[in-house]
Structures are given as structure tokens and as C-alpha cells.
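Hi team,

Filling in the usual template for the complex we talked about on Friday. All components are listed, including any nucleic acid strands or ligand strings, so the model treats them as one assembly.

SUBMITTER: L.P.
PURPOSE: interface mapping
COMPONENTS: two
RESIDUES: 731
SEQUENCES:
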Amino acid sequence: MADAKLNPFKLSCPVPRVADDRIVLAHGGGGRLTHQLIEKIFLPAFSNDMLAQRHDGAVVPVNGSRLAFTTDSFVVRPLIFPGGNIGDLAVNGTVNDLAMCGARPLYLSAGFILEEGLEMETLRTVVTSMQQAAAKANVKLVTGDTKVVDKGKGDGIFVNTSGIGVIESNMKMPIGPASVQPGDAVIVSGDLGRHGIAILSVREGLEFESPILSDCANVWPAVEALMNAGIEIHCLRDLTRGGLATTLNEIATDGNVCIKLQEALIPVDEVVQGACEILGLDPLYVANEGRFAVFVPEEQAQAALGIMKRIKVSQGSTRVGKVEASPGCTVLLQSRIGGNRVVDMLSGEQLPRIC
Amino acid sequence: MKFLSEYRDPKAAEQLAAAIRKKVTRPWTIMEICGGQTHTIVKSGLEDLLPKQIALVHGPGCPVCVTPIQLIDKAVAIAKRPDAIFCSFGDMLRVPGSAKSLFDAKAEGADVRIVYSPLDAVKLARANPQKQVVFFAVGFETTAPANAMAVWQADHDGIENFSMLVSHVLVPPAMEALLSSEQCVVQGFLAAGHVCTVMGFEEYFPIAERYKVPIVVTGFEPLDLLEGIYMTVSQLEEGRHEVENQYTRAVRREGNRPAQTTISEVFEISPRQWRGLGEIPASGFQLRGRFQKYDANRRFPFSGEPAKESPECISGLILQGLKKPHQCPAFAVKCTPENPLGAPMVSSEGACAAYYHYGRRQTQSVQTELSGPASR
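RESULT (copied from the run log):
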């Protein structure tokens, strides 16, 4: 390298790291490594037309009706956190995945992996929350399974829930990234980052003047209201792992569109923003458990916003951006000061910075 | 958010940008020292507001980026000891050593923990007397007081199973090293505000004088940076080379004296290896005197092979501001945050990672020119 030879400094550059030969935590972070895992390991093995839609759940035709089917596993530390616990998280998470298919959630299964030594009282608390969340969402938990593993081989409780829902409406286009059109408005259903920061605050022993509660909630009422009002929903996606930024990147990539955001419009609570500033995190990448993004035609955007604001779970709905045709597969953001940048997918885990 | 949104105000930003445009009559190259500043510049798209004549180059002030590869190999070796709990700030975990990162070591069973304060590592040592708790003390002058305090605390409480792998670097010697290079393109500096919060800015007067270069102590919010750029450009246009302080709400000329006292009680100045820049004399801290017994370097002898170098990564040129990240043929093609060839692609403060995450669109044409279509 000619430049290096001229240079008075001794240049030292690292050698490339060896190919990943083990699972690292970031493979479960919802960002680019998770996608690589899906693309390189899972999709080649299980490839089929329904999986290829790459939505939060699969929509399967059964005797003339359309059912949505989804599954999700829940591993969270601590098990009980401000605003919820692993129980309501496990119910709402799967209910929301069904809602994102435009399906009315009906039936759930629950698989528990319990660690030897877990306090029975903790399990009772979690199960009670599941029961309450299921009742609230009007779903029945109809089958289940329990396994116990040796102490040290689990983290108290792991829960898997699967869910079945039914699609009742007849949309012109299926709900999913492929239906997203240039000109669509992008609406988020409330302020961002509460769940991730609530978990982190307990994990790291951080205290705030006003405690941050998880946003964990069932979002079906908002989706149902939109559908009942005849809003033509092009795409729905909950903003869980990897946050808004990762979700929108998935949609931009799968739908080959450009999503343009206005930073000043993105709702983030002041306390959450403050926590993110202290921890060096970007709220666009922080997980939510009761928020979703919805893509609707521009001419229906105002009506959709009005409907969502009347429903409790989505009363903080805000329009944050729009869809354009190009550059495809890209999320762009205009910053508060008027500069432009790319919003990338979460790469690895979001890590606190040094200073 | 109070004390934050004021510094991101679009109207004030446009006013400052207009003032800069009015002031500029010819091209100037300005280096922001600190990775935190680079992060803000790229994240807020601040360069869109500047006139074309102003080129910002990104300096070596990312602690993750300049930590030598040998030290990361050493950290990995210590972390893999069965009796060790290895503690680090988050973004060090992803930096590749010559074969592994601390994240890889964690995946292989090493007890590697992210802490928010070095004092948390001291607490861990107190709670786990049968374990060796090692803290990876990385950073510039900004993190030195807290790290010094952790060693002081361990010493005060007689916690002997605590030690520190020290990789502390100092800003002024790096600036001098850059300025003394014949290839130096930098005509003005935005000095790192938080470093100066601790150290003050008296050290910069001789540098400004010797190299005839304006140095403006600058903060980290978009308006801070625009104002710092305005002050630097004003000096350049007017032929001045002074040390000025933009970040007056946090920085005093003499800095934080109690913090400096703690630093000098625990640390002494030493030569340091900088990843990408090589060894710079008197450019770092090491533990001094009676505190040397807390030096993980001494406690855990390590005989690793010297790390081999890759010809592809041009991080050295990038850290000196001689190249921009997207001018590297490997950028976003062979070198990505998932498979970094060099440390600047790892940390969120690294210039390459900042370009990758926030500016890929603007750089795609350049990549294509240099190395064919981008792979993603």
C-alpha cells in the first residue's frame, strides 16, 4: 500500500476475524446476525412458499377460511420487570404477532421450561399474569407442556407460546411488505423504547425520577378498529427486538422501497430519551412490546390516525414518515437539524459506549 | 428534553450554518478529535449543512479503535482463565483481536461482563473473593478519573483479587504526532470537549503555537459542533491560531482539579501503542508505584505471538484523517460491522462504523467505483 509506506507512523491493522463458528448473543438480537442465521441456516432447511413471505406469522388456507399461525419464545431477565413479567409478555407477544397478520387472535399454546429451584410463588405470579392477559385479549390457552431442567441449565422460566388466529376481513392486498406502495404513510402506534429501557433499568440498577414501565400490551384492538373502519392496511409490523429501525429496514428490503422518516416526528418519552442518552443507546433500536408500525395509503392516513388515537393501546399514534420508490431497500432519516442519513439495521447487539 | 433539545434546534443550526457559509472564502480541512463528535456529525447529517469548502476529517479519538490488537489478545487470554471474571465497557467486547473478540470468548464460556462503571468491577471482586476480577481500563483522559478511583478504592479496601488491564491514551500527544507528520492535512482542530472537562485546555496552547493551528474545545451536540466549526473557520480565515473554548458550559481552562489529582496519584505517564498509529511516546497512562500490584499485565503474564497485520485495513490512514472510510476498498464489501477488518468498524464511535450505519447511501457510488458493486 503506497500510502502506508510514505507514512511516518508504523501502521498496524488487525487481521480479519475467523468466520463465526459459534452462536453469539447477537444472533438472537433481531438485527443483521439474526437475519443471517435465518437466511443461512433455517430458510435453506425449511424453505416453502409460506415461510418465504417472511412475516411475523404464516397465513394458511384451511377449508376456505384463512388462519394465521405463529410462535414465539420468551427469555427475559429479570422475569418480573416494571410494567409486566414474562407471563403477559408471552401472551401479548404471540397475540401481537397474530394481530400483525391482520388476524383475530383465538387460541394459544404454552410450553414452559422451568429451572430446578424456581420459587413456586414466582411461577404463580407469572401464570396469573398469563391468565389475565389471555382473558383481556379474549384468547384461550388450550394446550401446554412443562419441562424442568437442572439448576444452572435455565434462567428460571423460559416460555414458548404458539397462537392461531382467523383473518376475517377481505383486504384487496395481503398485509405484508410486498403490499407497501410508494406514497404510503408510516404511522407508529405510540412512543418508543419503553420496554427495552424498563428491562435495562432493572438489570443495571438504574433509577429514574419517574419509573419507566414496559409498554407490554395487546395491540389487536387497534388493528381491529382500523380494519372495521375499512382502512386499507398495506403492512403491519410490531416493533420488538431491534426496534423501529430494524423493523423498517426489514420492510424496506422485503418491499424494495425507500422509507423516509422525520426524526422530529418520532415519539420518544423524555425519560426514555434521557436514559438512552446516559447509556449511549439509540431509541430507534430499543425493543417495544406494545407498539407497531402500520403502512396505509396517504389518503387514508388522517382517518387511520384518528381511529388509532381513540384506542387506548395506540393513543400515542404518530405519523413518522412516508414511502418512496427509490432508493430501494433503504431507510432514510432527516435529522432535527435538517441533515440526512441512512438508518441501518441493528448490527450485533446495541452496546453502551465507553464515554 | 431540557439541556439537550436546545442544542439540536433546527433554527439555530441553520443560523450557525449560514454564518459559516458567510465566513468561508476558501477550502479548509478541520479534524474533530473525538469519536463521539464523529458520531454526532454523521448521525445528524451535519455535513449537509456545511459549505463544500469545509472538509471534516475524523480523528483518532475513539478509545476502542486505538486499543492495540495485542492487548485485546491479552484480554481474551485473561478472560478465558477459569478463575477470572473479565469486566469491560460494552463496545470493547466486539473488537476483533488477532483471532477472537471478547464476545467470542464469552460464547465459548468465558465469564465476560459488561459494566457501566469500573467501581462495579470492584464490587464484583468484593462479592467473589475466590475469583480474579479484571477490568479493561480503556479510554482517553475522560474515563481516567473513574478508573483511577476504582484502583484507589480496591487499594483502600484491601481487595486483592481486583486488577486492571490498562490501555489509557492521551489526546495532546496524538495531536502532536499527527501534526508532525509531513502528510498532515489538518488545518484546525475541534478538541474533545469531555477530555477537556477533566484536563482543561492549557496543554493545547503550546501545540497551537508550535504548529500554527487553531484549536477549539468543542462539545458533542449538533449546535456545539456547528459553533466549534464556526469558531475554527473564523480563526483560519482571519489567520489566527489560538486555543478557544466553545464548550464553556462544561469546560474550564484548568479542568477538574480533584479528578486530575486522583489520576496522578494512581497513574503515571508512559509510552503507548496506538492501534493504527504505532507507538507514541508519553501518550498514555500506566499504574504507578504501590498501585502496580493491581496491574493485570503484571499479574497475568502473557506470551502471545505478536499479532499479524492485514494489508487491507487502512485504519491507520483513517485515524490520521488521510483517508475517509468510504475510500477504503474493503469498506462495506469485505469489512462490515459483523465482520470488521479493523476496529473503526466496530465501535459506534469508530469513523468506519459511523459511515457504515449512517451514510451508506452517499458512499455507494464510491464503493462501486473502487471495487465493483457492493455485496449488499
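MY TAKE: Chain B has a mean pLDDT of 89. Chain B touches chain A through 90 residues (CB under 8 Å).

Thanks, L.
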